[in-house]
Amino acid sequence: MPFGKLFRKPAHQLRKVAKPVLVVLAMTVFALAQKESTIFTFKQANGSHPTASLVADSAGNLYGTTIEGGSSADGGTVFRLAPPTQGGGHWTQTVLYAFQGGTTDGKQPSQPVAFDAAGNLYGTTAFGGASNSGVIFELSPPSQPGGAWTETVLYSFSDQVSSSRLIFDSAGNAYGETQSEVYELSPPSSQDGTWTFTVLSQFTATPAFPVGGLAMDKSGNLYGTSGLGGTGHGSGCPGGDNCGFAFELVKPAVGGTWKTNVIYNFTGANGDASTPDGGVVIHGGNHLYGTSAYGGNDIGDGTVFELSPGSNGSPWTETTLHQFDRNVEGFRPEGSVIFDAAGNLYSDTYFSHGASGGEVFELSPPAVQGNPWTITDLYNFTCGNDGCYTLTGLIFDKSHILYGTSTYGGQGGWGVVFGIMP
Prior knowledge:
5-stranded antiparallel sheet, Neuraminidase
């Protein structure tokens, strides 16, 4: 399938290696002399059109996916970017795997990859596999430096397309989302066994589109968002659809059934969020934070929101931390959020102010609780060599350099990996 038919613009319209870490890199050798730097430009042969955020290992290598390119023009890739060994050098890209499609391999990975504790990479594809509905795959590092990574298809979806990244618990179980369900993939008990796929929750009572990835608390409970469905409906909800909802899956005792709770229905009215396509992250104990592509101001330019649990069983409450306004800033945030040690929040928007390329922003908490958060525009993309359309979310290193991908832009328009110094 051509890239344009899969890529959501915006999302609602389609319904042993170095020790891995997911957000903070253990070192950085990347010094930016300017606010934004394109550290890698894609060409079709080495992958094209990244639509997912990056992950990193402790050596500062970045890992990601492209939805097209590789040895098959529309197969897609998993890639690694190694930082330069000295100042002023270039990052080095290696294609770890190029997907071929067909009934035995995946095709078009549109989500991020994830590490397990042993340094294996896991991810999903949107197509390919036994039913051409995508697969869950594992990439194992070579036993000798410079060798080839080994791909294993762990599961082929039958009628659902994956809509999120994978996360892992301490036992090595993986969790993810499809277009209408949350699932668990459990490793085999023996080396030559098969992985077990289990549906934990299926959203059938109302139209739903769980998307953006899950967050897990210390008790193993899961949290996420759906970009469609729920009971809320307001002027900020696009296309006549309901505005989406946030949910909780409560982990059962051994052998029990997971319990699904809708913890908030977004309304898209009076400043409330709508169409939360980026999932949520847990920060500040058990508070949830995320972005919404719509809702907020009168024309629905999107929001950053916080969900706070009630005490003694009372309902969760939503606080809109920022309403975007296309007249003064970027709008349509669709990516996930991250925090720094000081409690500042970072993400990106699909569109930028006065242009179409996207914006990276910082949102800083107030000195006095209850006062407004302060937004800072860190960079507006021009749709030139610097990149075009950012919607995937960011990661950062200990030097506070942010890294992300843009789906288009760069020489040839195949997309880029960028770094930004706040």
